[in-house]
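Worked example

This section walks through a single chain of length 208. The input is the sequence exactly as stored; nothing has been trimmed or padded.
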Amino acid sequence: MTPELEEYLFAHSTKQSALLQYIEQKTNQLTTHPHMLSGALQGELLRMFSLMIKPRRILEIGTFTGYSANCLLGGLACDGELHTIEKNDELEDFLSEVLLDERIHLHIGDAKEVLKQLIDSQFDVVFIDADKREYVEYYNLVFPMVRPGGWILADNTVWDGHIIDPLYNNDKQTQGLQHFNDLIAGDDRVEKLMLPMRDGITLIYKKP
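Given that input, the structure is written out below as tokens.
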């Protein structure tokens, strides 16, 4: 996507809230990998998706600086819950500043261990945006936790084009995403659509 086209899309989409602008600014100031932020366009996609689905329970694997969690709140039921998992405990203080909604439950720790604690829960939407090497494990753990007719959204599935670049075939994160993409493509329990927005996002619908 060219910068000019991206600017055009920004100009014709709903603007970021003040909180999201603040999170984006602080992410650029405080972190060494600010590109991990979902960003305005994908963030708005997540918010609109939540508005369409109107979930009661959301699970996010990979909080980072809280941008996507605040976007996913968009359509969450008034009595709903959003559970979000972040491995980096150095972000906890900042997250306590920006995850203000009482419906958000932050879990600090290894995602696989936290998921085992939530294994008896049922979710309407799961957003996966964490260690790319472990996407297959995350998927296998959360699939039973997604209600029939629920959704899994997986971020970074195009991986800046590396996913089809032979030069990256030995890169562990690229390999993890390749294995995940192949798993989803062959899973007849779900409908799936891979979109090229930003770094790629795959929409996965669990068949009733």
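What to look for: The beta strands are 57-61, 81-86, 104-108, 123-128, 146-155, 190-195, 201-206.
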